[in-house]
């Protein structure tokens, strides 16, 4: 790092940006710290938006990462409702949407992702919705009152979590998925099959291998979803959950390297040493991705990654540099079922099923080595898997599939 570091500016007040700010103070950074976020709310957690918050089981206050007083107490200047519109790398400053310029010694980009738009006619009709922000969730909570038929496009995590909440309210829910199974990019066929069955038992209908060609409307409102094979599925509300794209334009326009994410090194630095980037918006080298079809650089969308990268970066900026090496992990609550994933699996990784008592786990192997573990209502397997992956301990497929084999002893030994 060249020169004294007196001012750090963070772009994006989500999970990663907030964590970096909090961890910088915890690690003793005493300079000026500004957290610029385009959303109006205090930094909040997104996961409950498609779970407890959507179901009305928690309020907006329960989502906050910290109460308002925390920011003043820790001298974190939170600037809500403000967008950073440009970076002047030579002058080390950022331009804000209110016209102000803010100078920095170090800049942290934590801009997250946005939902992929559905590229068909009618996608802009009223009643076609997405779920990313608190505003989206508030609008959805209001919109699902008093309606009957929901069509979800995309059987990924958010689509399925939304479907589960709606089905539990007695709504009629159809999920349309282009692939042949649920969560196809993220989990094994075994886990997909189990979750398809869980959702069907809860009353959800699936259409697999189905393309959407249009949203049909009447008077500006969506009334049906048309599929490639000519079906027209009536809908009072359509939720589009077809993945996200990284918010990388700010970095790209400033000449930083981007490729499906802002490119960073193992220390979370961009191609400009005065700018780092963390969270959903970055692509980074990971030993857990080694042998994956896309190479050993990944972009990960998870709370774990956002939090651990925020902490890792704060440590480097306060004089304790370490390469980022955290085990990826993730969870998804779908109805009463809890899915937890440790590690990163490629679609072609082998699967070994382990069943003991309630729930099950699928152990994934790439080139004979453990790559990931998907656990359904098996938190102990998940915790053991995180330890095994962190330590790079050897587990054979035979051991994984043997319910009598003591995983915990291997993980902690
Ligand atoms: P974000 O939290 O998206 O924050 C980025 C922020 O930057 C946003 O507020 C954005 O408005 C702001 N921003 C962007 N550009 C600018 C700019 N130019 N100027 C100012 N501000 C800007 N993960 C899990 O591990 N488990 C779950 O169960 C889970 N459930 C989820 C459910 C939902 C509905 C969603 C949407 C996500 C879920 N996730 C879950 C993913 C998790 O929330 C994200 O991985 C995490 O929020 C990423 O943090 P981030 O800070 O990188 O991005």
Automatic annotation (TrEMBL):
SUPFAM superfamilies: FAD/NAD(P)-binding domain, FAD/NAD-linked reductases, dimerisation (C-terminal) domain. Residues 7-310 form the FAD/NAD(P)-binding domain. Keywords: FAD, Flavoprotein, Oxidoreductase. Pfam families: Pyr_redox_2, Reductase_C. It comes from the Bacteria. It comes from Methylorubrum extorquens (strain DSM 6343 / CIP 106787 / DM4) (Methylobacterium extorquens). Residues 329-411 form the Reductase C-terminal domain. This is FAD-dependent pyridine nucleotide-disulphide oxidoreductase.
